glucose-6-phosphate 1-epimerase
Amino acid sequence: MSGEKPLVELCKGVNGLDKVVLREVRGSTAEVYLYGGQVTSWKNDLGEELLFTSSKAIFKPPKAIRGGIPICFPQFSNHGNLEQHGFARNRIWTIDPNPAPFPTATCDKAFVDLILSPSDEDTKAWPHSYEFRLRVTLGPGGDLMLTSRIRNTNTDGKAFSFTFAYHTYFSVSDISEVRIEGLETLDYLDNLQEKERFTEQGDAITFESEVDKVYVGTPNKIAILDHEKKRTFVLRKDGLPDAVVWNPWDKKAKAIVDLGDEDYKHMLCVEAAAVEKSLTLKPGEEWKGRLELSAVPSTYYSGQLDPQRVLEC
């Protein structure tokens, strides 16, 4: 049909940064900036934004974009010579001219393949050769899927280790009215208490103060229930054993330059991650980590999630 917008379109975003817009035929969309290889928008077929992006987000290198789905690699958190959460989220990725085969159904036509390669600057701080391929797909029902493949291409015979997270910021109506199901009774490391290990109590996780926890050995499905919006996010993951839950609350939000003072009320980070234990790749070895996000009516709850539903298409 003439005048129809393409399913995949490369265009300019904020401050002239390149972005790829993915469109699904029923009307859902996603936007992926080449800066950071970062999804910054995911809208359903009603045009409702499902991801949170800060009202003060800085779309200008070298500052990472606050919101959407930043990619944390080759480290999560802050230690050693590397910048916080690694360098992948503030580097320019390229559209992959020779994408490797991905297990994505042929009906998923709205996708983009990106690649990140080492720069001279990065190898000074992290002296390894790697190939990072990312596919972002908008599925036929509006589901958002991210598949990362990281390969060790060192020629010196050396293995390397890394940690990883999809630092997903979900848009919620009111953080006080949201709960998470699927992490109850699990152990977590509390970053607000020097990574001390605790066991989660209660039937579901709710929020009334700052939270910064790494849940370990998590199931591959987690549900985020937003009562006010009558919406449930279903997070499915593969190759990512941990889940990070973060909200800065009021005091810390005011201390974060690129976050609005009241933004914490409308965001919740639930991150599919591999952070408790480092992942190690020998030369030639490849790791794959996959995330699938769905937004469904809130009549769903974690016990209703289909246990037979698999991540691989």
